[in-house]
Every structure is written in C-alpha cells, then in structure tokens.
Amino acid sequence: MARVHNFNPGPAALPLPVLEEVQAELLDYAGEGLSVMEMSHRSAMYKPIYEEAEATLRRVLAIPDDYDVLFLSGGATLEFAAVAMNLMRTGRAGYVVSGNFSKKAYEEGAKYGEALCIATSEDTDYDRIPEVGDLSGSGLDYVHICQNNTIFGTMWQRLPKTGDVPLVADVSSCFLSMPLDVERYGVIYAGAQKNAGPAGVAVIIVRHDLIAQGPALPICPTYLDWRLQALQGSMLNTPNTWGIYVCGKVFKWVEEMGGLEAMEARNRKKASLLYDAIDRSGLFHGTALPRDRSISNVTFTTDIPELDREFVSEAARAGLVGLGGHRLVGGMRASIYNAVPKASVERLVGLMEEFEELHAGTSATE
Length: 366
Prior knowledge:
By secondary structure, the protein is α/β, with parallel strands linked by helices. The chain folds into two domains: 16-256, Type I PLP-dependent aspartate aminotransferase-like (Major domain) (Aspartate Aminotransferase, domain 2, 3-Layer(aba) Sandwich); 258-358, Aspartate Aminotransferase, domain 1, CATH 3.90.1150. It has ten helices and 14 strands. The chain has helices at residues 16-25, 47-61, 75-87, 100-109, 208-212, 226-231, 241-256, 259-280, 305-317, 342-358, and strands at residues 5-6, 67-72, 92-97, 114-120, 143-146, 148-149, 154-155, 167-170, 187-191, 202-207, 285-286, 297-301, 320-321, 332-335. The chain has a seven-stranded mixed sheet with strand order 2-10-9-8-5-3-4. A three-stranded antiparallel sheet has the order 11-12-14. It has a two-stranded parallel sheet with strand order 1-13. Helix 4 links the parallel strand 3 and strand 4 (114-120). Helix 2 crosses helix 7 (241-256). The longest helix has 22 residues, at 259-280.
C-alpha cells in the first residue's frame, strides 16, 4: 500500500528512514534477541540507547553543558504544571497568551501562584503574536511563551527581551525545525509527537542553576520535580523507553540531513511554496498575519465552512490526510514538519489549484 501525504499536526509524520530502521530492529535489536520495548530501562543494553539519544540532541541543538536534558512522560501539557511548580518560587510569573496552548499554560500556572497575562492576541482570534515590551528587571520568576501556535499557525519571529528573567518556551511544534539559541532560554520543552518522535515523550531542556538553587514547590509531585529527575537521569520511574529510542533515531536523522540549518532551509522552502499559493488564490486565504506566519503549521480557509469540509474530504480521497483545521477554528491546516517532503506540499498546492478551478467564482460574500 502506498503511503499517504501526511499533514497531521501531531502525532505527525516520521522520517521514512527512521520507520524502516525501527521496523528492521523491532524483533531483535542489535543481535540482543529482544525488542527495545522488552528491555529493562536500567539494563546494560538500554543505557547506550538513552545516552546516545541525549548526546545526539545535545550536538544537534548545541546545548551547553550547564543545561540538563530530561525525557519525561506526559507530553508538554503535563509540563504546564511542572513549569510553575519548579520555578514559581516567589509566586509571580508572566505569560504571553498567543493561542490555545499558551492560554492553557497560563491557566495552569495560575493554580500555583500569581500568573500575569503580559499580553494576548485573543481579541483578534490569535491571528498574530501580541506585542510585548522589555521585561528585563520585572522581578518575575519567569516569562512563558508558546513559540509556535499549532492551532492558529503563528510563530514568534523574535524572542521577547527578558533580561535576567528566565524565558520559558513551549516549542513543541517548531522543535528541531530550525536552530535555537539555547542560552536565550531558561527552559525549553516540547512534546515529541510533532517533530521529534512518537507521542508520549516530553523533552525538557533546563538551565541547571534554575533547579539547583532550591527545591520545587512543596506541592510538586516527585515525578514532576526536575531537580530529582535530573539527578536520576530521567529514571525516577520507568520512562518511555521505546519513545526515547525512536526520538534518538529522529535526532540522528536530523543530524545526518545537515542539522538544523538545513532543516530550516527545507522548511522555509515548503512554507513559501504553500503561502505563495494561498496569497495568489482567489478562493483560499491565510488566517495568520503574514508577519507572524509559522513555518510548521499553515492555516487557511475559504471562509465557507461547507466548502472547507468539501476540500478536506477531496484531499483525503486523493491521499492527503490531516488537513482539517482544529475544532476551535475550522478551515484547513497543513502541518509541514521536517518529515513532510516537498513533494507532498507540491501535491497539496496542485490540489488547491484544481479545487479553485472547479469552484471558480465562489466566494464567502456571494
């Protein structure tokens, strides 16, 4: 059976070479006579798998030695609570609300202290990244952003100035799609299921002094205490061994493809191809402000819900899956992560042109 063009937002497309390698090793990993899924997480067989995954990620992202790398379960959503319980030591933190997940993080943070909404674009249906002033010297425990908004198709083009205030970023849907200056952040975290591996793994990169300077809040569950997890190498309990193994292979694939600079160049070409098609269309139009458009998630619509649904159905019949917009906004969304080839985007553009020709003269104002 031919593989489809996969535009799912997460779980999302995985690199075909990674899938083939995993398939080949499924029953017998490296001649050990068992699958990685069957290995003890503390065994001599599994330890090199974990260590290589971390070492490869450190190389790919150029992570400084004074940052800890954790591979935990629960995805990024569980980290909304972990961020506050590990870092809100004076009980006051700032949040920029630029979409659904940043709002959820803000609401979660408010359970553990004073969460200040520094800026929001909710009043314009999250079609942009809100303007944020210089937050240096604000006395906040941290400033939290969602760097790429999967649902609304927006992305921070410049990070906010926070000075001595740690910047905490949920980078789930732009993780590994471009270089990140890790030292600009106090904490970077991401759900793996968009660009880094299968669902069920969260990657947390935290500056060591932020967790070494004191304990997490007393209310913090042991599992979510980053300091304890770092001391135990992410193995306070049994981690998602299989997920970490696959993530390690994805990290290696990114490295072999030329690293994050090469990934960004590929992704920007794909995004430009699709945005150019949207901008010249008389039927489709983008929903994100052009200055803040994401290179990971491209959102667009015809402004006619019935026509949007027809397009998504036609696309699925043509082997292009995952194009339905999130239930909160409708329309269409093409998630064009690292593993989505340019050929898939070209096929999508071709289908859009065919669909527009079929519906020539149709508009939401008629």
